[in-house]
Amino acid sequence: MQGNRSVIAVLNEVLTCELTSINQYFLHARMYKNWGLERLNSAAYKKSIKDMKQADALIERILFLEGLPNLQKLGKLYIGEHTPEMLQCDMDFELEQLPLLKRAIALCEEQQDYVSRDILEDILEYEEDYVDWLETQQYQISALGLENYLQTQVEEGE
């Protein structure tokens, strides 16, 4: 099925974000693991895996629309050097991605590509939930203090 060129282009933009996100969250996960922060490791690792699955769904959709998925392009990685900075880097990345997703959803709606829209809405919902999780972590750091917060992150997560 031949898809709309603008829809394929915006799906590739979102794919670039997802591929970038996989790398950022995977590296942050391994940094947390190296520091013994198992709960943060688990959360960041699960996020990287979820992003991989989202990228896979986008790749399949682009191919179905007879487009060519661009897996060569990556965006800028935001890598922190300590936990609060890493959480802020992840927040900055998420907040850059949300407007793109909303624009992509609106374009798919306009072009009556409801399947692509649904895929993007699922991604948007997950990303907004992750922003909420990041905000919670930042709040806990401010409320508990960094040392107490880090102590809570040593035990294995859910």
Secondary structure: elements and pairs:
Blueprint: H1 5-34, H2 38-64, H3 83-110, H4 114-144, H5 146-152
Catalytic activity: 4 Fe(2+) + O2 + 4 H(+) = 4 Fe(3+) + 2 H2O; Fe(2+)(in) = Fe(2+)(out)
EC number: 1.16.3.1
Function: Iron-storage protein, whose ferroxidase center binds Fe(2+), oxidizes it using dioxygen to Fe(3+), and participates in the subsequent Fe(3+) oxide mineral core formation within the central cavity of the BFR protein shell.
In terms of per-residue confidence, which ranges show pLDDT below 50 for 5 or more consecutive residues?
Answer: none
Mean of all residue-level pLDDT scores:
96
Alpha-carbon distance between the two ends: 42 Å
The description of the largest β-sheet is: none
Radius of gyration: 17 Å
Structural class: mainly alpha
Strand content: under 5%
The oligomeric status of these chains comes to single chain
Please tally the β strands and state the result.
Answer: 0
